[in-house]
Amino acid sequence: MFGKRKQTSIEMNNNYLTYTIEQLAADESFINWIKTNDPELSDQWRTWLENNPKEAEKVAGARQLVESLVFERIDGRAIDKGALWDKIDQSIKPSPETEVKSGKMGLLKSALWAAAATLAFFLIFKPFAGKENTVVAMVGEHMETTLPDNSDVLLNADSEIGYYPKKWGKGRNVRLDGEAFFEVTKGTRFIVHTKLGTVEVLGTSFNVLSRGDRFEVFCKTGKVKVSSFNGRYNVVLTPGNAATLTPNKTFEKTKLGDDGPLGWKAGNFSFDGATLEVVFDEFERQYAVEIRSSESIDTMRYTGSFSRGDLRKALKDVTWPMGLETKTEGKNITVTKSSKLSD
Amino acid sequence: MSDQQLWDRLKSGEQSALREIYEQHIDFLLGYGRRFGKDMTIVEDSIHDLFVHLWQKRKSIGGTDKIRPYLVTALRRRIIKNHGNQKGSTSDQPIETYNFQAEPAIENKIIKSERELEQNEKLAVAMAKLSEREKEVLIHKYHHDMDYKDISLVMDINYQSVRNLVARALKKLRSGLQIVWLLFLLCV
């Protein structure tokens, strides 16, 4: 562990009243209370709860979250630590070459060694590429950003891209987690790196989706090269075509027409026989709500679309054709089978 | 002895200090390293190189009062690079893509009810759906008790990104867990 948890007494400020469950669950003092049960902290939190009885539900939710964040320990017992140390010990035994000799030559040599050492230090301990620049579109928001080469990126909700401004000159590399549409200016190779594969272009526009096990690339203009993570499978896309990573890790190519999956850019989300789990997932992402349903509902297949903007209308567009009823409480939506239709 | 003193001893060339640092942190480093993949030779080689480097460059390294974040940062970079090399990627991987293993501790718990069992399964499913970075950030925050500043150093992303990552990961986990609550209510 990284050292003892701070046991400082905390000011029970009123800010906690505006916290969401997630913010509370990420609060250091709150985590300490749940994890250590420190009596002083306990007192403070209990008193606060007594003064703010309405917060009980929030505290319960955050508590559940923190308590579930206990991870499987992975230890290194399988490794012979003594043998590993012996290997290190062998490697650091001074060799004749590194011995500093006296005399002019020695001085020069040691100066060179010092310079090399300093350089090496920067290589291991200093991020030589500088900090990564990260652009995030949170749940419920879309985000537009321009890269150093004036390429434009439109991020769908709950998506993130990252790149190193200081490395940009050496190659255009972007990391993506989520979904984004790229309009790349003409120039050198431009590569999008995702968990499951890479997308390589020179200058064109294309859409990349990388969420969980899904990796889908759509080419809008120009030419796009898609590769699996290990580089074993490659496919080149021309406009209107899409590549989808299949469960056996190869690519399936499909012709989707001009706009393919790009409806999301204008706030339209279309589905063709998708499970409601997938549809609700997208819905939650676009409207920053939480949908509760049952497994028998999640597995139903939906063909249709919803738009971003009017939550109630969008919800109806999804649930009404499926004979489902909804109940909305704040950010929580409960979906049930319509009592009239169920057996 | 404080980290600061131990570090100073290392810088002044005491080999016993390197040994002490090794002993204090090796379990942690091995455990953390294994989260990046099953191949233990990569973890072993990376740790070997890290300590050899630390010794060879001891005179030029900066001071620190917190040794572990330094070691974790350096090890993480080596492991990701070595995994990348093994996959046969050309030159050095410009952007980090990696696998990270973080599973909720379920086996150690005594399961009291059907509901709890179901809850645990949902938790495992929700956790598996997180991105590698989301999983790693949760491990650092809730398992390693690191603060945002150290996480930012180790994962090489800025402070605000760390906070965003945590918020997103928690949100995803919570929606995964809530479904169980509803089922529970329906069953009663």
Largest interface in this structure: A-B, 74 and 86 residues
Which stretches of chain B of 5+ consecutive residues score pLDDT under 50? none
SS-based class of chain A:
alpha+beta
SSE pattern of chain A: HHHHHHEEEEEEEEEEEEEEHEHEHEE
What are the low-pLDDT stretches of chain A, counting only 5+ consecutive residues below 50? 1-9, 96-106
Coarse structural class of chain B: mainly alpha
Shape by Cα distribution of chain B: elongated
Explain this structure:
The complex is a heterodimer of chains A (343) and B (188). Chain A is of the alpha+beta class. Chain A is 29% helix and 30% strand. Chain A is built from nine helices and 18 strands. In chain A, a hairpin with a 2-residue loop joins strand 17 and strand 18. In chain A, helix 2 packs across helix 3. The radius of gyration of chain A is 27 Å and the shape is globular. By secondary structure, chain B is mainly alpha-helical. Chain B contains eight helices and no strands.
Helix/strand layout:
The complex is a heterodimer of chains A (343) and B (188).
Chain A: H1 21-25, H2 28-36, H3 39-51, H4 56-68, H5 81-91, H6 104-125, E1 133-137, E2 143-146, E3 152-155, E4 159-163, E5 172-183, E6 190-193, E7 197-201, E8 205-211, E9 214-221, E10 224-228, E11 234-237, E12 241-245, E13 251-255, E14 268-275, H7 276-287, E15 290-292, H8 295-298, E16 301-307, H9 311-319, E17 324-329, E18 332-337
Chain B: H1 3-11, H2 15-34, H3 40-56, H4 67-86, H5 114-128, H6 132-143, H7 148-155, H8 159-187
